[in-house]
Amino acid sequence: MGNSKKKTFNFPSAFSILFIILIIAVGLTWLVPAGSYSKLTYNSADNVFVVKTYQQPDKILPATKASLDNLNVKIELNNFLEGTIKKPIAIPGTYQRVEQNPKSLQDITKSMVHGTIEAADVMVFIFVLGGMIGVINKTGSFNAGLGALANRTKGNEFFIVFAVSFLMMVGGTTCGIEEEAVAFYPILVPVFVALGYDAIVCVGAIFLAASMGTAFSTINPFSVVIASNAAGIPFTEGIAWRFGGLIAGFICVVVYLYWYCKKIKADPKASYVYDDREEFLNKYMKNIDTNAIQEFTTRRKIILVLFCISFFLMVWGVMFGGWWFPEMAASFLAITIFIMFISKLSEKDIVNSFTEGASELVGVSLIIGLARGVNLVLEQGMISDTILAYASDLASGVPGSVFILAQLVIFIFLGLIVPSSSGLAVLAMPIMAPLADTVGIPRHIVVSAYNWGQYAMLFLAPTGLVLVTLQMLNIPFNKWVRFVMPMIGCLLVIASILLVIQVSLYSV
């Protein structure tokens, strides 16, 4: 009698998914025609504009409004002079086919290495964060704090989910807190587990809520502000519509999370990640015993307060201090060192707990580098500009409502090719925004289509942050897709309705 045990299919890991996508990206550089727009940058040292065109000498132009007008770049001069726009801007009407630059098999491993080097700042931040978590775990502060929290929230566990979702939504809409959100998982995962929830709830309250907030950005400088500037309009145009979408999106997220939380509370086996719970618990709860009663001493309270301060400091630095990952890593490291001094741990325990905590996030860091490698292949293969040029041709010469929905679809697709919100803004807005003039609608509606379309894709795009998040929490990609698809549907329905209404009201 044969073995009746059925072989179960294991969905590929994040590494395998990105490796397959990297091979596809290399193949695309052979199939998609290479092309390039001329790019405009501002040289602050010499106070001049530099126009870079493929295989042509750079053109130096005076940094004046007249130069922008001659290039048909409808962006305020001050946006360059004040450093609001730092990345190269695609110049409308300059697209040209260039010689094909296909990548080879050896470029697969090269791009993986170079992508990892480019992601070094993010990786250092993640290592420092992991080390910090390891040290605080060793002090017993998390254990004691979780026990106190569990006692105080009995019967009202969902309030924690609601509060975290609200804060992440606010962070998303105001400062685009996404990459920085990886810092919240190591501390909040044990909290959600102690409340009786699973890994998906944690991703929902952090990544899903933050991304929905970023999709409906109101004053986020890394998406809607830079996109509006690149479109040649004030970012305040259309802000009321984006705020209305934000409220609708937040309601969808909270209702959906409430439904899911209630379902898994009633039956833990209803969890989408029930089969993976052991691996998940071993990773995040191995040093935490929620049944053990540990005294929540003053020292442990101070350590947790310092830990929380580090996050507020990070958000302040990103919003007002011009910080990026090196500065964030340095601030976390400084607070970690202070915690080490007051922890009363031995020197050996401190070093071992820090290195062990950092080592647990090596896999997550490498995924970031691999995703950057995909972007490098597409960039060096010079096919991103071609895709943008084809997309702009598709969207031109159609009625306003069809035009704006086509823009939404185009930005969904471009979100996969260019997962950076600021990168896509400076690449696409100077090309796409003028098309709005040809169909008689305001440019701010195109900015909304960019925001909503790109982020509908970034909930799923393997080249974005989602695989990093899933790797941290041991969530298979297919189970995440099952969970998030209803929210993507909500986002696209809200976006489509708001876009069509705006076109009907503002068409001239």
UniProtKB/TrEMBL annotation:
InterPro entries: C4_dicarb_anaerob_car-like, DASS-Related_Transporters. It is found in: Cell membrane. GO terms for cellular component: plasma membrane. It is a multi-pass membrane protein. The chain crosses the membrane at residues 12-32, 119-137, 158-177, 183-208, 215-233, 239-259, 302-323, 329-346, 358-378, 398-417, 452-473, 480-505. It comes from the Bacteria. Keywords: Cell membrane, Membrane, Transmembrane, Transmembrane helix. Its main location: membrane. This is C4-dicarboxylate anaerobic carrier. It comes from Pasteurella dagmatis ATCC 43325. The lineage of its organism: Bacteria, Pseudomonadati, Pseudomonadota, Gammaproteobacteria, Pasteurellales.
